[in-house]
Amino acid sequence: QVQLVESGGGLVQPGGSLRLSCAASGMFSSINIMGWYRQTPGKQRELVADVSRGGLTNYADSVKGRFTISRDNTKITVSLQMNDLKPEDTAVYYCNLQATPYPGSRQYNYWGQGTQVTVSS
Questions:
Q1: Contact of 18 with 10, CB cutoff 8 Å
Q2: 104 DSSP assignment
Q3: Nearest 10 degrees: CA dihedral of 104, 79, 66, 50?
């Protein structure tokens, strides 16, 4: 059974930093994209950043230059370093994994349970 466990959320002042981490457990035939999404009440979940198996990264315009995503293919982890945080970054952050479980041939979208990030003075 695939499980994603997130850590690292919390309360931080504007301009501060946080690092989110997500570890995946289970057996996989292949792991494609790993990423982070966020959601605030009444809004749709939006992509923050993702990274391909080959290391190609993609960021939302609102976080470019402030957030850095990285992954470890051996440990099956993905991290999000968030610097210069702003109040508008406040949200629940979700880890996402697009992977094919073993055994199997179909790719699925897996989600973590979410971790709260609050940016406030």
A1: yes
A2: -
A3: 0
Q: What is the pLDDT along the chain (121 residues), one digit of tens a residue?
A: 899 999 999 999 999 999 999 999 999 999 999 999 999 999 999 999 999 999 999 999 999 999 999 999 999 999 999 999 999 999 999 999 999 999 988 999 999 999 999 999 9
Tell me which DSSP letter residue 43 carries. S
Tokens standing for 56?
């190609």
Separation CA 119–CA 121 (nearest Å): 7
Residue type, 35: G
Which token pair is 9?
A: 């959320």
- Do residues 28 and 107 lie in contact, with contact meaning Cβ atoms separated by under 8 Å? no
Upstream peptide bond of 103 is cis (omega within 30 degrees of 0): yes
